């Protein structure tokens, strides 16, 4: 059987283009912690009690609704004990869509989230830049807040700090920026 190199090349390129059409690069503007604090509509601490993926409504074919419970409002107004945050990506049947730079939540974990409204939904401001996972300090001190920034591309090629911070330090900074002692 004689193979046609041109056909093989065309088939290979077509397969690459189909896959490239499924991939989405996300480039975001760098947001310092101070900028996040100044511009977020709502800043909360909460524990993820549920995650539910569904069909996406925009660019992404899957979105996940994350329920934050046991809320503590750090800044802004929210009068309920729970809040739903929507993130890009998720699982639909046997398919999974992972969106580079999107915030990543896990059920049972606590977070500090900087949120803004997108239509009728709450979303994490600045993609993964606006989400800090809270971990207990082994010494029993103030919880440690860290960001998971894998896959996040910041415009201009700059990097965003992912160094661990004390939760109390972040909350005091938020108060200063928003004009509270």
Can you summarize this structure?
The chain has helices spanning 5-22, 33-39, 167-177, and strands at 27-28, 42-55, 62-75, 83-88, 90-92, 95-97, 110-118, 121-124, 131-135, 144-146, 153-154, 165-166. With 181 residues, it is an alpha+beta fold.
Write structural notes for this entry:
- By secondary structure, this protein is of the alpha+beta class.
- Helix content is about 20%, strand content about 35%.
- The strands form 3 sheets. Strands 2, 3, 4, 7, 8, 9, 10 and 12 form an 8-stranded antiparallel beta sheet that branches. A two-stranded parallel ribbon has the order 1-11.
- β9 and β10 form a beta hairpin.
- α2 packs across α3.
- The longest helix is centred in the first third of the chain and has 18 residues.
The outline comes out as: globular
Characterize the main sheet. 8 strands, antiparallel
- Provide the domain count: 1
The tally of strands reads 12
Label this structure with key terms:
181 residues; alpha+beta; OB fold (Dihydrolipoamide Acetyltransferase, E2P); 8-stranded antiparallel sheet; 3 helices; globular
List the helices and strands and how they pair.
Elements: H1 5-22, E1 27-28, H2 33-39, E2 42-55, E3 62-75, E4 83-88, E5 90-92, E6 95-97, E7 110-118, E8 121-124, E9 131-135, E10 144-146, E11 153-154, E12 165-166, H3 167-177
Parallel strand pairs: 1-11
Antiparallel strand pairs: 2-3, 2-7, 3-4, 5-6, 7-8, 7-9, 9-10, 10-12
